[in-house]
């Protein structure tokens, strides 16, 4: 097969066709218009670049449709070409959430953000965050005061991603029936808390970052960040830059699942390279928002009452006494891997 034939195949066959023919299914809940997540058993493939590229979030594997064929079992490039050729004419299903591209040109990231109003008590985004996701009103107020949140369409909220200089790069979009990321935006980090904090808690979603802040009663020494559900090169650079600051302590507060463990290992490697302290903090449930609103919330409340009489008394006590039971002091070089516990 010559180069012209290979390029023709690359244009005719998308990665989605190979995956669907191989029995993979779209995870609509975890997909966006620009990044479609496919699952088969415990394996995950993300299709990007309008179907022409892919990557495995659980490994370094990535590439085009031919490398995907090899990833799925083809032996060598010749076998991969045959597998791709067999998929010519196969039309994958269109996810029900997919929307046609907008015909009009989008404004700049800064312009679109500036045209949106801040959430306020009683507004759709405010109700989604406080009623739908169980975030305390004071946490939402602080995020609004730091210019981290905006009202999105149809009751959704936008959570800003920014670079180390504070420049807006994009935003996470979450709502009752929608999740995505800003069109033409770039994932870096959602940042909530004092910018120069030495303790950095790394989560996978802005709502999880704010949920963890609520669970920890918003520690004043902590910057809570979110990768936005991915691990872009810009995100990797941003975390490495945070690890360079004096006395940095990295806490991998990613989800309690296989993908969360993969991201935690990346944080661990960055901490090791920078010779800074590291801890793994797992939510008891799948993520920190589930911990904030689910059965773990009742357990935390019971522990607080048992140790300080009332939750209010515990909060007023200040210092170490105001910290929740899951958050103990750093003990030398010990690396925590316990659910719901952080050693930093």
Describe the structure.
The protein is α+β, with helices and mostly antiparallel strands and 344 residues long. Strand 13, helix 10 and strand 14 form a beta-alpha-beta unit. The N and C termini lie far apart (57 Å). About 10% of the residues have low confidence.
Concise structural overview:
With 344 residues, the chain is α+β, with helices and mostly antiparallel strands. It folds into 2 domains: 3-86, Alpha-Beta Complex (DNA Primase, Chain A); 112-322, Dna Topoisomerase Vi A Subunit, Chain: A, domain 2 (3-Layer(aba) Sandwich). It has 13 helices and 14 strands.
Which properties best describe this structure?
344 residues, alpha+beta, DNA Primase, Chain A, Dna Topoisomerase Vi A Subunit, Chain: A, domain 2, 2 domains, 5-stranded mixed beta sheet, 13 helices
Topology:
Layout: H1 3-12, H2 15-21, E1 25-26, E2 36-40, E3 43-48, E4 53-55, E5 62-63, H3 65-71, H4 76-86, H5 109-114, H6 124-132, H7 137-145, E6 149-151, E7 157-162, E8 168-175, E9 178-181, E10 190-192, E11 199-203, H8 206-215, E12 222-226, H9 233-243, E13 249-252, H10 258-274, E14 277-280, H11 288-293, H12 295-308, H13 311-317
Parallel strand pairs: 11-12, 11-13, 13-14
Antiparallel strand pairs: 1-2, 2-3, 3-4, 4-5, 6-7, 7-8, 8-9, 10-12
Helix pairs in contact: 3-4
